[in-house]
Amino acid sequence: MTLWICATCGVEHADTPEPPAECAICSDERQWVPRTGQAWTTAEQLREADIQVELRDVEPGLVAVTSSPQVGIGQQCMLVVTPSGNLLFDPIGYVDADAAARVLEYGSVLAIAASHPHMYGAQVSWSHALGDVPVLVNEADAEWVRRPDAVIRHFGATLELAPGLALHTLGGHFAGSTAALWDAGADGRGVLLAGDAIFPNPNGASVSFMRSYPNLLPLSAATVERVSSRALELRFDRLYNNFGRSVPENAHEVVRTSADRYIAWVSGVHDDLT
Length: 274
Ligand SMILES: [Zn+2]
Known about the structure:
This protein is an alpha+beta fold. The protein is built from 7 helices and 18 strands. Helix 6 packs antiparallel against helix 7. The model has no long low-confidence stretch (mean pLDDT 97).
C-alpha cells in the first residue's frame, strides 16, 4: 500500500499506483506549490527516515504532539485529555506504533479532528493506529479530504464530544474552520484551540485573521466580524493556535479588541496614516 504524502503540506492521499498530478490543498490560493513543482513522499519513506514523535505537556490536560524533523507544514498537534476520553486535534503528518502507544498512555482517544484542511495531516493513519477512532471532518470542508475512509464522519456548526469538550465552526480562513473549546483548560477558565482561524501575534496579547497566511491574503471586515462574534459566544480565557503560539490570558477580550482593530484597518479608518 502506497500512501502518498504531499511533501509541502504533509496531508496524506489515497493509495494509488502513481502519485496524484497535484495536491489540491497546495495548489489552492491559500497554500503554495514549490517553484520546483509538486513533491511527494510516502508513509514508507517517512518510516525509514527515523522521524521522532515528541509529546510535551503544555498545561495540565493538554499535550503537544510534534515530530522531528517536521513533516509538511509542521503543525503542533494538541491532545486534549478529559475524564471522558481525549481529542487529537490537528494531527501531524506522521504516525508510528510507538507514537500511537504514547498517545494512548494518556487514555483512550474519542476522536481526531482538524481545525481546517491544511491540518488534516495523517488523520486516517492516526485513526487506524489508535483503533479506528472517528475522524471528524467539518461538512463545509468535506471536498478537501484527500484520503477517504470509513472512519471519517461529518459534523455541522457544533459538535459536543464529551462533557466540557466541543467543536465549534468559526469559518473565515476556510468555510469550515473549526475551534475546539475545552472548558477545564486554563485552570477552569476555558481554552480555545483555534487552529489559524484566530492567530496569536508574537506578543501573546493580540491576534489576527487571514484567508491565507503564506500568501498574505486578508479577510473582509464582515467576515472577521462574523468569525470573532462566533468565537466571543464561547467561554475561554486562553487561546492556542496550531504552531505553538498562544494568548495565555484575557484571550476573550483580546479577540474582541483585535477584531475591532482589524476591521478598522481593512475598512479604511486609518488610511490617513498610510
Ligand atoms: Zn499539499
